Amino acid sequence: MRSLLAAVPLLGTASTSAPVAARTIYSGVTILDPRTKTRLPDRYIVVEDKRIVAIGRGRVPRRYVDATAIDMKGRFAMPGLFDTHAHITLGPVSPQVKGGAVSLTVAGSDAITRHDALMLLAAGVTTIRDPGGDTARMVAYRDAVAAGRLTGPEAKVAGAVIDRSAFPVHGLVDRVDDAHNVASYVAAQSKAGVDYIKLYEALTPADLASGIKAAHAAGVTTIAHLGDVSWTTAARLGIDTLVHAMPISPDLLPADKRTTYLKARRPGPFAFFEWYEQVDLDGPEMREMIRTIAAKHIPMDATLIAFNLAFYGNDQQYRDRDVAWAYPTMTKNWETAFRFDLGWKPDDYRRAQAVWPKVQQFVRMLHAAGVPMTIGTDMNNPFVAPGISVAREAGLHVEAGIPAWDVLRMATTNAAALLKVSDRTGRLRSGMEADILFLDADPSIDIAALTKVRAVVENGRLHEPEALMAEARL
Ligand SMILES: [Zn+2]
């Protein structure tokens, strides 16, 4: 591909980002506005420093004659994408057994985070929400990007996941036990500067209630990944946001299926399909749950790609299709130790694949009910590679029957509202931050066009995907 940057006077060649000319004009582009679901052909976008200062139609006015001109004829421009479930500090996960005691260690590193930040940008992701990781690393990432010390998507971050885990998970979980309660972790994380509190699947309703209360007192928002506690219960307790299209609480199953499920269920990710086998999506329990979270406008990201890759994990070619985007140590970890489908037999894959249409139907029902959904990937979980997975996740939503425009909205305006940054990004408008994704094809017609990234502008800085990827591999 001919370099876009060839047209730009380069002051230094070490960086992948062009130095910001006083003013840059991207001309001849079709703007896609997910908020209004409209296509605006033959537009020019004027960027000055970090902001969009004008958008117009047709010929570029003479007053911009001194600007750096970049011809984007035939291309499409849309707001930079959001990944609302990007674990930017997650590292390889490894089990230890010491004197019969089991623990897990999640070994995040600056090298992985730096790599993933560049790969996210290369895929057009200019903003992320990170819903859980090592507290210090999370805050450090957010602050380094904000201060311009690190190239990557702007972030809002949770701290360590708060959970009653069966064993210690070093580098990821703040473990609740007799000596440590939820509220004290919430207070410590809030003091450390997190934007969100992540409440996890083994917490009791009482834990959730105290976590939500402590978080709100500290002025931070809660995110829940739930197991046995139902989304209905969490919604009534005041949870702010939910994640994963896996609401695997026995309480949401029909009464006559509950006992069968509890008796036969196996630990861990088997529940992803065992629960779906038993659920009646049109039953009163599910209808009430969807009604409750829709009425309370509780946002959620489905992270379909994470489950899809496990359900179809016996198709190695499919499973591995994006590993070139991942940090090599992560790929190795997924291939050897860290897998959702660890120990699955052919019959397990068959059963999982058989319920996939129900997962799709559930997501469709949430959308139809008006639940404010966003696009989140669960990046760095097994085979969920940074960056490219956002396009995959969007594609899975379209496959589930949600119109492409609605999916583009989930990845931009809905996400900006979730992160409370709608006043400055998530739309292409004069006065907004210049976070722009340029594509070679129109994703409102074919969502797969999200993989055809021509260039990315983040806070006014122009990047080419190839250059970002080359820098990531250094
Ligand atoms: Zn996650």
Explain how this protein is built.
By secondary structure, the chain is α/β, with parallel strands linked by helices. The protein folds into 2 domains: 4-80 and 426-473, Urease, subunit C, domain 1 (Roll), CATH 2.30.40.10; 82-418, Metal-dependent hydrolases (TIM Barrel, Alpha-Beta Barrel). Helix content is 35%, strand content 21%. It has helices spanning 110-122, 135-146, 182-192, 205-217, 231-237, 255-264, 271-278, 284-295, 304-311, 316-319, 328-336, 346-369, 388-399, 404-410, 413-418, 465-473, and strands spanning 23-33, 38-48, 51-57, 68-71, 76-79, 81-83, 93-98, 101-106, 125-130, 154-157, 161-163, 169-170, 173-175, 196-199, 221-224, 241-243, 300-301, 373-374, 436-439, 453-458, 461-463. The strands form 5 sheets. Strands 1, 2, 3, 4, 5, 19, 20 and 21 form an 8-stranded mixed sheet that branches. The protein has a 5-stranded parallel sheet with strand order 14-15-16-17-18. Strands 6-9-10 form a 3-stranded parallel sheet. β2 (38-48) and β3 form a beta hairpin. The protein starts with 22 loop residues before the first strand and ends with a helix. 53% of the residues are buried. It binds zinc ion (ZN).
